[in-house]
Specification:
Protein name: ABC transmembrane type-1 domain-containing protein
Number of domains: 2
Radius of gyration: 28 Å
Number of strands: 5
Number of helices: 18
Family: Belongs to the binding-protein-dependent transport system permease family.
Membrane topology: Multi-pass membrane protein
Main location: membrane
Subcellular location: Cell membrane
Order of helices and strands: EHHHEEHEEHHHHHHHHHHHHHH
Structural class: mainly alpha
Distance between the termini: 57 Å
């Protein structure tokens, strides 16, 4: 059995997963929250983005299960000798990719789907030095004559990959159809929801997105069975493998930093708005001072102090992965403790309004303690601001990590991240011929992650903030168009009996 390794960020990520599951259970028990999230579920771009975010999350969680493989016993070792584990730490994602082309490095650069290195080398041919492009040692090794066989082999592997992705998509659609048919107790209603889109939840759009995602992943998997589908970098590592490993870093930076930002923002924001006076002045002075310091300089100073501590206490880390992981964890804490001022301002302004309402004044008149008023009356009424800020900050922090790694103060150089890929590719763009595939891969993966997070965040903001709620054309059609909506909202005629409102009449 391998030895399970618990890294700081692994524990934090899985605790956040458990917290998300607990929140889902709470939403199921709360009619108001269930109705609010139902508005998010009716948003087509948000649900399509949720499919993409789930795919990224699965890859990140697979890369968050670390272990040290068990080494075979040494020759002549005693039967009762203690087990010996490998010094290198692997993840479940590494275990799934072991033995594939993605984990077989080359000497240096190679183009996507290439059979030769990108740079010429001096080779001995018939005892004569010749400058030519050498064959790759980890990809396209099954080809005897790459110039003649590569095109047909690439098309064959691409076809098998697309077929496999389509099979997975069909299986997923069949499972969804069975679930809808069981819930609706009608196969015809499930078919209408999937094929015609006649459902509040955009199942058809989600299935189309899932199919496209499966086809994309299948194509990459089919091509990566014999080639470096997205090429290799300067030291020969597969670019697709680096992008998959960078997903976890982006998720950790985006989620853990946001979680670290919440405690000071919530405590200081609610306290400043509720107590006012000297407490408000002190908290305002604190976050005004923090925001007056340039953010990059503040993060750089904290990161350098953190690096000095890690370098002076190298004996605390048994592996290089543990050292790099602690640096990532502390970087998230630094970003969180230096970036809470914006949310604190929002919560302070909202609390200043809420403290003057009747139910808060009544609680104070009955002698309810300040702590109970802030936790039971004020915090639930500002929770929508917290949730909106969490989902909006995620994408910004993913981009911020790229900037910090580009400046050299981000994650450890031995850890894969989109910022490290961009930083490594900044000089490659000026080469002739240009090496473009590393930067393109980081750009595409970051674009997909950040765009999906932004679209989902927009839907959450619209659902939880009534002032920005939008009227959807599809919703107008279900309500009978604008005329039907106006007719429902128009005042009753003089002398007419008021009509009881229905749940379906609400916008």
């Amino acid at each position: 059995m391998p030895k399970i390794v618990f890294l700081w960020t692994d524990v934090a990520l899985w605790l956040m997963v458990l917290s998300a599951l607990a929140y889902l259970w709470h939403v199921r028990r709360s009619p108001n929250l269930r109705a609010t999230w139902a508005r998010v579920a009716r948003d087509t771009p948000a649900m399509c983005s949720a499919v993409i975010l789930v795919a990224f999350s699965v890859v990140g969680l697979l890369d968050s299960v670390h272990y040290r493989p068990l080494l075979p016993p040494a020759p002549g070792a005693a039967a009762d000798a203690p087990p010996v584990y490998a010094p290198a730490v692997k993840s479940a994602l590494d275990g799934l990719l072991t033995g594939t082309v993605l984990t077989q490095p080359e000497k240096n650069y190679s183009q996507p789907l290439a059979a030769y290195l990108f740079l010429k080398e001096t080779m001995l041919v018939n005892d004569q030095p010749v400058r030519d492009f050498p064959r790759l040692r980890g990809a396209a090794t099954h080809l005897t004559d790459p110039k003649q066989e590569r095109t047909s082999d690439v098309l064959t592997r691409l076809g098998f990959g697309l077929a496999g992705g389509l099979a997975v998509a069909v299986a997923g659609a069949a499972i969804l159809f069975a679930g809808l048919a069981r819930r609706e107790k009608s196969a015809a209603a499930a078919a209408d929801a999937l094929l015609l889109g006649q459902s509040d939840i955009p199942w058809r759009a989600m299935v189309i997105t899932f199919t496209g995602l499966c086809l994309f992943a299948g194509a990459l998997a089919g091509l990566s069975s014999g080639y470096h589908a997205l090429g290799t970098d300067r030291i020969g590592n597969d670019v697709l493998w680096q992008a998959l490993k960078s997903i976890r870093t982006a998720l950790v930076i985006g989620s853990l930093t946001t979680i670290a930002m919440l405690p000071p923002a919530i405590i200081f924001g609610i306290a400043a708005g509720y107590f006012k006076g000297k407490v408000d002045d002190a908290i305002q002075y604190l976050y005004t001072t923090i925001t007056s310091i340039p953010g990059v300089l503040l993060v750089a100073a904290c990161a350098l102090m953190m690096q000095v501590y890690i370098d002076n206490h190298a004996d605390l880390f048994d592996t290089s992965v543990a050292r790099a992981d602690l640096r990532l964890f502390l970087l998230c804490m630094i970003l969180g403790f230096t970036g809470w001022a914006g949310l604190c301002r929002l919560l302070r302004a909202e609390t200043l309004k809420l403290r003057e309402l009747e139910y808060v004044q009544a609680a104070r008149a009955f002698g309810v303690s300040h702590w109970r008023i802030m936790t039971r009356h004020l915090l639930p009424n500002v929770a929508h601001l917290v949730l909106i800020t969490v989902v909006l900050e995620f994408s910004g922090l993913v981009l911020y990590e790229a900037v910090l790694s580009y400046l050299g103060i981000g994650v450890d150089p031995s850890m894969n991240s989109f910022g490290s890929m961009i930083n490594g590719a900044r000089l490659e763009m000026s080469r002739d011929p240009m090496i473009w595939w590393s930067l393109m891969t980081a750009f595409i993966f970051m674009l997909a992650l950040v765009l999906a997070a932004n679209l989902f965040a927009d839907a959450v903001r619209d659902a939880f903030d009534p002032r920005t709620r939008r009227y959807k054309p599809s919703r107008m059609a279900r309500l009978g168009g604008w005329g039907g909506l106006i007719g429902r909202r128009s005042a009753p005629a003089l002398g007419a009996e008021p009509r009881a409102s229905k749940s379906g009449d609400a916008p």
